# Entry
Amino acid sequence: APCELVECGVDFENSERAATVNGKTVRAASLRAVDVLGPSGQTVTLGDEVGAKGVLVLLRHLGRPFCWTYANAWSARKSELDALGVSLTFVSIGDEEKLSTFLDLNPAVPRDRAFVDWSESFDLYEAAGFGKIGDAKPETVDIKPPAFGWREWWAYLTNVAALAPIRNDKPMTG
# Structure
């Protein structure tokens, strides 16, 4: 599973509500303070959306098939979480247009529970300890392609460039 690629742990005895991700302490308060953008362009504070008890699913890239699979797998569990009084919130990087396209392509993901971090420095991902591509180099990676049918692969291949986390207001450099 994609989440197995990130080394993490949680200290439930710690009153600060913190976890360790890739060797960095990540505090719930830091994540809850980040502003995110919804598919209609509304800005909200993540903590207000997650509530007192929730699962926060961070999707690395709206155009990655692994993120599509992961988001849909969590969405399939939403009714179980609701019954437990646990909210389910998705966040990726991008803008409201990319998020709306992603949600159109993945209708099982609840539109009212999905947001993007549109900040230039990817504030949420920094607060979560994710870093940027190339910051950490795993010794081994065992990634298998998602179990997509031809329709899912076609949707992915025809939309991946449009969903890339590239800001429309910044020139591409490289």
Remarks:
- Residues 1-15 have pLDDT under 50 and may be disordered.
- Strands lie at 8-11, 18-21, 24-27, 35-37, 43-45, 54-58, 87-93, 114-117.
